[in-house]
Amino acid sequence: MEQDESERMKDESSESENEVYSVFHFGNKSNEAYKVQINVNECEIAMEIDTGASVSIMSEDTYKEYKSKFRIEPTSAKLRTYMGEQIPVIGRAIVNVNYKKESAKLPLLIVKRKGPNLLGRDWLNKLQLDWKDIFSVVGSDNQSSDLNVILEANKEVFKDELGTVKGMKAKIYVDESAVPKYFKARPLPYALKDKVEMELERLEKEEDLYATLGGGQEYTKLDLNQAYQQIELDEDSKRYVTINTHKGLFRYNRLPYGVASSPGIFQRTLENVVQGIANVLVRVDDILITGKTREEHLNTLSEVLSRFKRIGIRLKKQKCVFMAEEVVYLGFKINKHGIYPVESKVEAIDKAPSPTNVTELKAYLGMLNYYNRFLANLSHLLKPLHVLLQKDTKWSWKKKTGKSVHRVKTAVEIRISTCTFRSEKEINISM
What we know:
The chain has 431 residues and is α+β, with helices and mostly antiparallel strands.
């Protein structure tokens, strides 16, 4: 019987759990440090390469940001700086690490200390880093401080506080025929979604969004701090979001999650803020900026941050990515060459077991539909599967159905990229 990878790693490391590891540079962040973006448990984490660190570590601040993505266990491992100072260890996790085309399950120590996340020798021995790319990024950072100047000029945007959008308050529209209902106190806030009118403005389709990416060379991804709650509610709307708790009735003062119209209100607000700025994509609380040149990109970033500062919006700097050659946005990997599926999602499709009932089949088709743009003739490939969803059709998994799943998985594994739309290119229309 094959041993689970995470269990195997636990066994292999059990003897070394009591070792004292050296971490030389933790806490002394250097402007000239070599840094790299690593996908850890589907989170984009900036890590500082430290050949002086025998293990890889994550700071407490970063862990708190992505806490739900990590399952940590107690550890007796000890960390010491070169001065002999002990660094408190919160715990240890086995994480899924993805870097470019490489993937591995690796150990990660979470420490109770501020500072950069460190990529130590244990990970360096397992990952083949693109040093040419890393050196070029460091070189460009050293040659120009334009980005740092922009960030410093707009540092107010990155304050660790809840922002408040100035000059507007959200209004929730409710059907006049809706009858209020009284609910007993619940442990979590509860919103009456089905009685709230949806915003008339629909969120842009992904095709419309990605058309803006044409010609982009580098990408900046901005993450808002407590997104919706940066918008205050008007007085009339507060009565619609009253919640019952063990301490009595409370009303939200700010736009809450769970209300059907919240995404539309927030989307419209941000679109108004960045209106007229080219090369900016807004999808609720995820903002992507690009440019055909570095100068154009920096100018756009400067204008966006300046507007955010004026209107009172706050960002989570530790979750933002600046001037990267590749980013993951809305579940897609994006670079100057095009748009690609994320490896972890492709792997999930490939390893998914064959559905055994209609519910499982619908879930599987939903997973495939997310990447339908990459799969030619998908509707034809899935025809035998859609037959099983027809009314009054008895569930019967036939050989032809199984072949359909196999062909789809093969097509997904090819991972054909989608090019971003370029308006200046010649367009051929086939009839």
